[in-house]
Amino acid sequence: MRKAEIIRNTSETKIQLALTIDGTGQQKIKTGIGFLDHMLELFVRHGRFDLELVCDGDIEVDAHHTTEDIAIAIGRAFSDSLGERRGITRYGSFLLPMDEALVMTAIDISGRGMAVVELDIPSEKIGTQFDTELVEEFFIAFARELGATIHLHQIAGKNSHHIVEACFKGFGRALGEAVAINQAAPDEIPSTKGTIN
């Protein structure tokens, strides 16, 4: 099974996590930010990954460091678990409706980290802790650590919670597709260059 454990300690956050890519969607997540916990639970459930994650962050300042550092740690865990990327499908995409919201997510595990996030989220905060501008920060950090191109494009939506929820659910589905083993070529690195880095 493809697994990784990450310990990441800085002056701003202390993170411990264990990831299993080939899981069933089980999670134990405690970030100190209720809305972020909820989004990560959805991401894990829809991607069918298993994740145990505890973060002690400086949320008395704001949610920025915790959100970004968690994305770094999870992205790194996926990268470590995938190794040289042998056998993966590499690409994944999903068009996810969440009530009035509709978000398209696409990913290429290419070795090149970048995120294009085009969202129009009406509110500046969801709940009392989570600034909605952190959605983009999360996916930028995740893309950089995994070495992936991520696109998130909002097609419709007026409710901030629904828009962000569509992002995390759709991203889980798209990433699950991208990391799945290609049964037609389970030992091949999916690149004409012969490497993904």
Describe this protein with a few key phrases:
197 residues, alpha+beta, Ribosomal Protein S5, domain 2, 4-stranded mixed sheet
Describe this structure in words.
The chain has a 4-stranded mixed sheet, covered by helices on one side. Helix content is 34%, strand content 30%. It has 4 helices and 10 strands, in the order βββαβαβββββαβα. It has helices at residues 34-47, 64-82, 134-146, 160-179; strands at 3-9, 13-20, 27-30, 50-57, 91-98, 101-108, 114-118, 125-126, 130-131, 149-156. The protein has 197 residues and is of the alpha+beta class. A hairpin with a 3-residue loop joins β1 and β2. It has one domain (3-179): 2-Layer Sandwich (Ribosomal Protein S5, domain 2), CATH 3.30.230.40.
Short précis:
With 197 residues, the protein is an alpha+beta fold. Helix content is 34%, strand content 30%.
Secondary-structure topology with pairs:
Blueprint: E1 3-9, E2 13-20, E3 27-30, H1 34-47, E4 50-57, H2 64-82, E5 91-98, E6 101-108, E7 114-118, E8 125-126, E9 130-131, H3 134-146, E10 149-156, H4 160-179
> How many helical elements?
4
Proportion of residues in extended strands: 25-35%
Helical residue percent band: 25-40%
Taken from the alpha-carbon principal axes, the silhouette is globular
Tell me the series of helices and strands, N- to C-terminal.
EEEHEHEEEEEHEH
Biggest beta-sheet profile: 4 strands, mixed
Tell me the count of domains: 1
CATH architecture: 2-Layer Sandwich
Strand order of the largest sheet: 1-2-4-3
Structural class: alpha+beta
Round the Cα radius of gyration to an integer and report it: 16 Å
CATH fold-level label:
Ribosomal Protein S5, domain 2
Uncertain parts: none
Write the CATH homologous superfamily: Imidazole glycerol phosphate dehydratase, domain 1
Amino-to-carboxy terminus distance: 22 Å
CATH class annotation = Alpha Beta
The total beta strand count reads 10
Question: What is the residue-mean pLDDT, rounded to a whole number?
Answer: 96
